[in-house]
Amino acid sequence: MSVSLFDRLRAAILSLCLIAAFAVPAHAGAFEDAVAKFANDEFSDTAEAIDAVAASGNKLAFPIISALNEERLFADPESKKVFIKQADDKILDAATGAAVGKLPDGASEVRLNNRLRRAVDAALGSLTLMSPDPVKRIAAAQAVFKSHDENALSVIDEALAKETNAAAKVAFTEARAAIVLFKSDASEADKLDAIAVVKAKGDQEAMAVLISLGADQPPLVAKAVAAAISSIQGNLAMWSMVQNAWYGLSLGSVLLLAAIGLAITFGVMGVINMAHGEMVMIGAYTTFVVQEVIRTRYPGLFDYSLFIAVPLAFMVAGAIGVAIERGIIRFLYGRPLETLLATWGLSLVIQQAVRTAFGPTNREVGNPSWMSGAFELGQITITYNRLWILVFTLAVFAILLAMLRYTALGLEMRAVTQNRRMAASMGIATSRVDALTFGLGSGIAGIAGVALSQIDNVSPNLGQSYIIDSFMVVVFGGVGNLWGTLVGAFTLGIANKFLEPVAGAVLGKIAILVLIILFIQKRPRGLFALKGRAVEA
Q1: How far is it, in rounded angstroms, from Cα 399 to Cα 508?
Q2: At what angle do helices 204-211 and 188-201 cross, to 10 degrees?
Q3: Cα–Cα distance between 261 and 88 in angstroms, integer?
Q4: 57-94: string of b/e by CB count within 10 Å (b at 16+)?
Q5: Which residues 6+ apart lie within 8 Å of 119 measured at CB?
Q6: CB atoms within 10 A of CB 416
Q7: CB burial class (10 A; 0-12, 13-18, 19+) of residue 422?
Q8: What number of other Cβ atoms are within 10 A of residue 516's Cβ?
Q9: Of 465, 460, 444, which is closest to residue 310 (Cα–Cα)?
Q10: Per-residue pLDDT tens digits of the chain, which is 537 residues long
Q11: Distance (Å, whole) CA 175 – CA 160
């Protein structure tokens, strides 16, 4: 009896050992079989392999699907072996993770089509839904939202139950709603709730999901889908207008920076300075030189490069402006056509000098870390460089207004602008005011070049892109009036961005020019005409 019991125990233990011995190899064998399907070079087999690998729970699943997504997965059809090519060019056996010396000669990249790419996105989404990084979880949920893969529903539900991050929870809820919409056995009530969630998302991706749902839906669901699509379209149209307004403000800030110095010189001196754009270009090249010195000698200061470049650009461009006024402009006062021709010729000379010194090709000017990237506001994207340029422009405008109002030079400039002869009779050295005014306007153009270097190509032709628009802003706003320049720049910027989608960039600009010509026929002195005896005479 005791021997029989002992034999039974021994048999049971042996059976458990055999089960334990063969269970892992059987699981591993299933995973290896799934990986081997990538070597069949058939899209249907690849689709099956993606689903099986993603659902396996194997630690190699994510590296395999990632390699497939990034075109780093190779297969040898002869040996049915699949390999991962890592970023450092090392080769791994996809089924085991073991290092391999080199790819077999017959190995080729595993092919994908559009359907498989969607499957890969869904698989990657499912594999990263449980990541400890909330940013990765959100990205994974967004991938599942686009693919609405039913296989991810259980993972989504599990992740949603554990989620504590508010943004990730919203992303999971939206992903679950997209899956429910395409789930054949989902109830009508569940689909209506899902439509409400997708409608609340309210972006292009949400509308694409609803449109792709198809017309073969129950009447209530179809009606809710149509209403949601209509609502999202209206919402997107409103945000499109907001986006155009932001683009217009951004363009207006650039025009204001480029035109504000011209408004001063044109208003005080009556000089048509066609070389004003070259002062902008000189400021941009000053920024390039500053960044080159910092890159080679003091790389730790790169984030502060613009703070160094702004005063240097002001001084360099301002000094050149004073030299131009003293050497050329002062001999041509009262002769506007000769001034125009002289400054136009000077602009060509400066451009050629810069080409000789720096070459004709574009120069790279980098964005500091605090000006890089963007953020979402509703359904629009705002880049940090454009936002900082708008802030910088308004700061320059405020400082210039304060200088004109509260400093002796500002008082003298306003006096000369309103009545040059009376100012001279009161003891103001108008020639000195002219030189300093020209230097100030050129210096402001120089710091405009610093800002423009962050959003435009730095080349010898940089200033030519803004000189005509600058004159349009000054004439439209009112010659010599800074508030008119501000209003004119933002008005033209916003109008241009609203006309571009309708008429195109070229026709939009032509339409703006025609409107300004018609406006000047009605108000020759612009929006805000200067007051004064000399002006009114």
Answers
A1: 33
A2: 150
A3: 52
A4: ebebbbbbbbbbeeebbbbbeeebbbbbbeeeeebbbb
A5: 47, 50, 51, 147, 149
A6: 23
A7: middle
A8: 18
A9: 444
A10: 444 544 554 444 444 443 343 344 444 578 888 888 888 888 888 888 888 887 776 778 878 888 888 888 898 888 888 888 887 788 888 888 888 888 888 888 888 888 888 888 777 766 777 677 788 788 888 888 887 777 778 778 877 888 888 888 888 888 888 888 888 788 888 888 888 888 888 888 888 888 888 777 888 888 888 888 888 888 888 888 888 888 888 888 888 888 888 888 776 677 778 888 899 999 999 999 999 999 888 888 888 889 999 999 999 999 999 999 888 888 887 787 888 888 889 999 999 999 998 888 888 888 888 888 888 887 788 888 889 989 999 999 999 889 888 888 888 887 877 777 888 888 888 788 888 888 888 899 899 899 888 888 888 888 887 888 888 888 888 766 788 888 888 988 888 888 877 777 778 778 877 888 787 777 777 777 655 444 444
A11: 10
Which residue type does 244 have?
N
Identify whether the C-beta of residue 86 lies closer than 8 Å to the C-beta of residue 68.
no
Q: Is 164 left (phi over 0), alpha (psi -120 to 50) or beta?
A: alpha
Cβ-based neighbour number of residue 430 at 10 Å: 18
Cα–Cα distance list, 319 to 159, 239, 436, 466 (Å): 64, 45, 10, 21
d(CA 200, CA 215): 21
Burial annotation 262-282 (CB, 10 A radius, 16+ → b, else e): bbbbbbbbebbbbbbbbbbbb
Predicted structure pTM score: 0.68
Question: Widest CA span of the chain, in angstroms?
Answer: 134
Nearest Cα neighbor of 201 from 244, 162, 160, 172 is: 172
Tokens of 292: 């080159």
φ, ψ of residue 83 to 5 degrees: the values are -130, 145
